[in-house]
Amino acid sequence: MKIGRTQIMSDPFSSDFDADLALEQSSDGSCGGDHYGSIDDFEKALVTEQPEIAQLVCEMDKPAGTKSKKQQKRDRVVRLKEMTTGGRKLFEPRAQPSVRQDVCETMHDEWSTGPMSLLYRALKHSHRIEVHIRALNRIDRIARGYVTAFDRHMNVVLRDVDEVALPGRKETRSFGRRKFEEDHLPPGMLWQPGGDWPRPLGECRVVLQRYLPCSMIKGDTIVLFRLLQPKIASWSY
Asked: Which PANTHER family does this entry report, sorted A to Z (predicted)?
């Protein structure tokens, strides 16, 4: 295909380029037919000649309206339902509602088993109990009395207490040196020789006893509880 001389001179990349000739040959932007003098004239003609296209343009240019809170909530519920797995509910409680118990039911649940049940029966029926109390590494005292009060930490208050003690060998040797100090103690704190220890003892061991109107025993020193009621004397914790 041959390229004319005029086209070569109108090509800006050609060495024979002629700017005046290129301007004369270039298009003036007109459609060759009907043309509009302004954008308003074009829009009026579009509405008259192509109403469907004009309607679509208006819908596309229309800004999106803000949805109401109720509609937003409805849309959110629909989205959540689509994400909900089978067998699950849309709205589920975070935790199961707890059944509140009154004081009597709580006490019955806590004191119906274990050592608490033994203390509860002893307090309710005025049974005498036996409490084995420890020292650092052995049982050195046994108290027998009636339960007046106790708590969940095994702290116990007894009344009419008969207490026996088995001093260690060092305590036995220093017993005479502390005799003067013990003579000045209150009567309820004085120990007297005598009493029965439930386990066999050597010939040189000394058992002490005393009576206390009331005694409070800490739970962290208690090793064993035992009921002294004849029918249930074997029950111990």
From this structure: U7 SNRNA-ASSOCIATED SM-LIKE PROTEIN LSM11
- 236 DSSP assignment: B
DSSP 70-89: HHHHHHHHHHHHHHPPTT--
Close Cβ partners of 215 (under 8 Å, ≥ 6 residues apart): 143, 145, 157, 158, 161, 163
Within 8 A by CB and 6+ apart from 208, the residues are 164, 165, 166, 167, 191, 192, 193, 194, 195
Give kind and range of the element (H or E) at residue 148: strand 139-150
Q: How many Cβ atoms from other residues are within 10 Å of residue 111's Cβ?
A: 19
In angstroms, rounded to a whole number, what is the distance separating the alpha carbons of residues 88 and 177?
79
Is residue 222 within 8 Å of residue 158, measured between CB atoms?
Answer: no
Note the pLDDT tens digit of each residue in 79-97. Answer: 887 777 666 676 666 666 6
Q: What pTM value is reported for the model?
A: 0.51
Query: Closest Cα to residue 226, out of 188, 198, 184?
Result: 198
**Low-confidence winner among 56-60, 134-138, 213-217 (lowest mean pLDDT):** 56-60
Residue-wise pLDDT tens digits, 103-131: 666 666 677 777 888 888 888 889 999 99
Q: Which amino acid is at 60?
A: M
Q: Kindly list the structural domains of the chain, giving each domain's residue range(s) and its CATH number in brackets, ordered by start.
A: 128-232 (2.30.30.100)
Assigned token pair, 121 = 């029966």
